[in-house]
Specification:
The chain is 65% helix and 3% strand. The chain contains 22 helices and three strands. Strands 1-3-2 form a three-stranded mixed sheet, with helices on both faces. It is mainly alpha-helical. A hairpin with a 2-residue loop joins strand 2 (234-238) and strand 3 (241-246). It binds zinc ion (ZN).
């Protein structure tokens, strides 16, 4: 360890501590906190953010980072310094007061959003959203390099190397190939029964089966917990404390597959080695790489016929009345049924990326074209009608369905579609390395999980997603694998 890096250590510890506390409050806000706690908690979070800000922008830290960059460091140390330097660059241009106001606004924002969604009242959220957009644009403008577009600054935060030019190409290919393919599917006349997925599914039973499948795919309950929240998510404190949430309704597949999805996120974080955890590089490489893992578990593993062969009986045992007469094959067809719908998180695998495409186009308009917030519900509805042939009747199933914007996360959505595409590229490669479906049939998830841990998880944030994809598959990002995977899978299901 170099002298300067050693001197930096206590600052890094404080950064970690403030971050961890903030994350824990976020978790608490969404799960257990009483309704009225909000405003007071927001103040605490605001203070913590302020402290975080003052460590990062401490002149001493900046000086040490400069010194470290001149020294010979190990791979992990160098990566930590690189991350810190980027964080400094992000924050040093933002006035402390504005940073703190923004932190309070995002903490408050998710609660206002939740109320607006519940009351189906966009007007309630619009003024907050407007402020969030203004702050986001202002912060991006502080950081934009000469000639750099504001939305590109935001995209870079979530997925390095994927700017609007790359994403226009990616989403363009999806639009060109998947929209007509979807039309063929919906016109095929093939009817898939899925009525048995909805009904009187007891919550305690859903929780029991959720826990079983979380563990079956590799979630470790000694290093993680599962709770209930409005919108399923994963919180990562460190590799010994990774938390997932789910929510229950009368559709048994919603909770089941959300648990497998969040388990995929959690398994990624649980796979971070001890040397990296609680450092700035001790987490998933990027939002997109994270989604690649969660959606890999949810769809490529979880919605695979082979996956269910050894364990379907377990689901039937939990729900004998509802599923006793349904075969594994019928069940798997049902959970893969294509049905253009309004809610992204409940979308089938084929239409999913079109939901993301809509958000991408709208974010571009909000950030780059000064779209007025008030026009959002209408534009949202029009785009759903255009790409998916469905139109929301109210804002809770339209523009207010996702939490992201209320948290100030603009530029995040594209990662969902990118993640699916990364996953498909990994799947294609892995099939050449192992008998993927054979392993699933034997109930051997471990071999697949170990491959992902060895090639992806254990690297944490040492490399970018794009580099990792290249190192694992020997090829740069190639969206065609995703399109081929979808058209092949659904072509078979719909006899095309
Ligand atoms: Zn996810």
């Amino acid at each position: 360890m170099s002298g300067a890096y050693e001197e930096l250590q206590p600052y890094l510890e404080r950064i970690q501590a403030f971050q961890t506390a903030k994350v824990l409050f976020e978790w608490d806000n969404e799960t257990l906190a009483p309704k009225e706690a909000g405003p007071n908690t927001s103040r605490v979070v605001g203070t913590l953010s302020g402290e975080y800000f003052s460590v990062i922008t401490d002149p001493k830290v900046m000086e040490l980072v400069k010194l470290c960059r001149k020294e010979e460091l190990g791979q992990a140390e160098a990566a930590v310094v690189r991350e810190l330097a980027e964080e400094i660059e992000k924050l040093e241009r933002v006035p402390a007061k504005e940073y703190r106001e923004f932190a309070e606004l995002t903490s408050e924002g998710s609660r206002i959003w939740a109320r607006a969604r519940k009351e189906k009242d966009f007007e309630l959220f619009a003024p907050t959203l407007k402020k969030l957009v203004e702050y986001t644009k202002k912060f991006a403008s502080y950081r934009a390099k000469e000639g750099q577009k504001l939305y590109d600054v935001l995209l870079d935060d979530y997925e390095k190397g994927f700017d609007m030019e790359t994403l226009d190409g990616f989403f363009g290919a999806l639009k060109e190939q998947l929209v007509p393919f979807l039309k063929k599917v919906t016109d095929s006349g093939v009817m898939i029964r899925d009525d048995f997925l909805t009904g009187d599914y007891d919550e305690a039973d859903q929780e029991a089966i959720g826990r079983f499948f979380a563990e079956y795919v590799g979630f470790d309950f000694h290093r993680g917990v599962m709770a209930v929240s409005a919108h399923p998510f994963t919180t990562n404190l460190h590799n010994k404390d990774v938390r997932i949430t789910t929510s229950y309704n009368s559709h048994v597949d919603d909770s089941l597959f959300s648990v497998i999805h969040e388990s995929g996120h959690a398994i990624y974080e649980l796979g971070i080695p001890d040397e990296l955890t609680q450092t700035l590089v001790g987490q998933g490489a990027s939002m997109g790489m994270h989604e690649s893992q969660s959606r890999f578990f949810e769809n490529i593993i979880g919605r695979n016929q082979a996956f269910w062969e050894p364990v379907y009986h377990r689901l039937q045992e939990q729900f004998p009345r509802q599923l006793g007469h349904v075969t594994a094959e019928q069940f798997v067809r049902a959970v893969n049924k294509v049905e253009p719908s309004l809610i992204r998180t409940q979308a089938d695998e084929l239409t999913y990326s079109l939901h993301v495409l809509i958000r991408y186009e709208i974010e571009k308009m909000l950030i780059e074209e000064n779209l007025e917030v008030e026009k959002l519900p209408e534009i949202w509805a029009d785009k759903y009608e255009e790409y998916l042939g469905v139109r929301p009747e109210d804002v809770s199933e339209g523009v207010l369905q996702d939490i992201h914007w209320s948290q100030g996360a603009f530029g995040y959505f594209p990662s969902y579609a990118l993640g699916s595409a990364f996953g498909a590229q990994l799947y294609r490669y892995m099939k050449g390395q192992m008998d993927f479906e054979g392993l699933l049939r034997k109930g051997d998830i471990k071999t697949i999980r170990e491959f992902l841990r060895e090639n992806i998880h254990r690297h944490g944030k040492l490399k970018t997603s794009r580099q990792m994809l290249l190192d694992v598959t020997g090829e740069d990002f190639n969206p065609q694998y995703y399109i081929d995977y979808l058209t092949d899978k659904y072509g078979k299901l719909y006899n095309l």
